[in-house]
Design brief:
Helices cover 33% and strands 18% of the residues. By secondary structure, the chain is of the alpha/beta class. A 6-stranded parallel β-sheet has the order 2-1-3-4-5-10, with helices on both faces. It has a 3-stranded mixed β-sheet with strand order 11-8-13. Helix 1 packs across helix 6 and helix 4 runs parallel beside helix 5. The longest helix has 21 residues. The chain is globular, with a radius of gyration of 17 Å. 43% of the residues are buried.
């Protein structure tokens, strides 16, 4: 049985650990800087599989430097380390990487990220892992807190959204069965964000609005490979 380590104790990392009981390390608990592999590599040496849930998830932040350093450069260093030390890397990608692709997007579609730094650097990291690693699993998707935490939900945004407990369950299942490569992880059928929110927050208000052109209207994926 592979020895598995979870990186991060944010929304998804905490849920994976809660469901799996796998050991984890985090920047808060173990005082390391994810941007520098040498600050935490010592924790990785006794594990065969590393699940990375650490990311800057401020999707519309204009902070290009942080997005680059955390979501791309740090992930590249982690991937290269895992490849050199013969460890499997399970990495959480993003459905924002196919926001401008033909949809529903399959795993082999050419990535066309949404118009923001988060999408751009997450996509670059995903592609580096897939091109440079022999043993990896990249999971493309998105998740929200359960119940839906916001008072409003878009009626004009569509995707294969999942709640964090659902997403974590699938991460665990795919990791346990030894899946490799790229998987679209999401619901069997797409929802509008409003339809998705109603599942856990019946009082949510429908809205039809835009932040700006950095917000994708659709991140619909073909999830048939997973199901």
């Amino acid at each position: 049985m592979s020895k598995i380590l979870v990186l991060g104790d944010g929304k998804l990392g905490s849920e994976i650990v809660k469901q799996s009981k796998w050991f984890y390390i985090s920047r808060q608990k173990d005082d390391f800087d994810f941007r520098y592999i040498h600050s935490y590599a010592g924790y990785l040496k006794n594990y065969d599989t590393i699940i990375n849930t650490i990311a800057n998830t401020e999707s519309y932040s204009p902070d290009r430097e942080s997005m680059r350093d955390v979501n791309y450069k740090a992930v590249v260093d982690l991937a290269d380390y895992c490849e050199a030390t013969h460890k499997k890397l399970v990495h959480i990608g993003t459905d924002f990487s196919i926001a401008n692709s033909e949809q529903p997007a399959t795993e082999d579609v050419i990535p066309m990220p949404a118009n923001n730094w988060y999408s751009y650097y997450k996509t670059l990291a995903d592609e580096h892992i897939l091109m440079r690693m022999n043993n990896c699993l990249v999971l493309r998707g998105s998740f929200k807190s359960n119940p839906f935490p916001y008072p409003n939900a878009f009626t004009n945004v569509e995707g294969n959204f999942l709640y964090v407990n659902e997403f974590a369950k699938l991460v665990i299942e795919l990791t346990k069965k030894g899946a490799t490569g790229l998987y679209n992880v999401g619901s069997k059928n797409p929802y509008t964000m409003y339809e998705f929110a109603l599942k856990t927050n019946p009082g949510v208000n429908p809205i039809c609005d835009w932040i700006d052109d950095s917000m994708p209207e659709s991140v619909v994926m073909d999830t048939s490979k997973m199901w």
